[in-house]
Amino acid sequence: MKNETRKNQENIFRELFQKNYGTPMSVSSESLNHKKQRFSKVCDIFKDDNDITIHDVGMGVADLYGFIQESHSQKKILYSGTEILKEYVEEASVRFPDLAFFHRDIAEKSFDDTYDYLLMSGVFHQRRESSIRQWEKFYQEIIKNSFAMCKKGIAFNFISPFVDFYQTPVYYCNLPKLINFINDDLSRFFEIKHDYALYEFTVFVYQESYIKSKTVQPEFQKYFKND
User: Fold this and answer.
1) 226 φ, ψ to 5°?
2) Per-residue pLDDT tens for 117-164?
3) How far apart are CA 155 and CA 220, in angstroms?
4) Assigned CATH topology for domain 4-223
5) Residue-range domain boundaries for the chain
6) Angle at alpha carbon of residue 127, lines to 185 and 190, rounded to 5°
7) Cα 72 to chain center, whole Å?
8) Collapsing DSSP states into helix, strand and coil, what is residue 226?
C-alpha cells in the first residue's frame, strides 16, 4: 500500500505533466536555465571520472540525460533512471528507447542494482500536503536507500532555508537536521555547495571506501574503518 506522501507526489506531478506537457514546468521547473543550473551542480560529483554508471532517482522525463549528452559528451557514461510516476517512465522510454528506466519507489527500499553515482535533482522541493515531519522521513528514506545502491557517492539538492520569501507548499531544508542525518546514517564524507544563484544548495555524500581508495598516504589510514 502506497504511503500518503508518495500518493501526494504522484498526484502533484501527474497534474503538472498533463497541464504542462512538453515544457520545463511538466516536471516542476521554472525554466531550462533553472534545470541546467541544478544539473550542472549535481553532475560536478563525477567531474573527475570518465567511465561511470549513473542512476537518476526521480528522473522525470530524463532531461538529465540530455544535459549529460550535451555537457559531458567526452565521458563514457551509462545512464539509467527511476520514477514513481508511470507517465514519466513512459515518456522517457519514448524519448530514449535504448536506456533502462524503472517504475519503482526507492523510498520504500533499496534495490540490488548498483551504480557509481545516484543523482537526485529537484526531488525534495515540493512537499505540498505532506507535513514537515512526513516529508523529512520521506526524503531520508530515499537518500538512505539511494546511498545503499551507490559505489562512490550520491548527489542531491534542497531549497535553502536562507531565502527572502516563503511558500507554504515548499520544503525549506533544516540544515542541521540534514547534516546530522548524513553523518549518523550515511557517511562523514560529504560536501555542501551553497555557492550558486538559486535559493538552493547541492550535497555530495561519498562512500568511505571510495574516499579511502583515493587516500594513499599511510599516515591517513588510521582515519578509516578497518575492512
Assistant:
1) -75, 140
2) 999 999 998 888 888 999 999 999 999 999 999 999 999 999 999 998
3) 25
4) Rossmann fold (3.40.50)
5) 4-223
6) 30
7) 18
8) coil
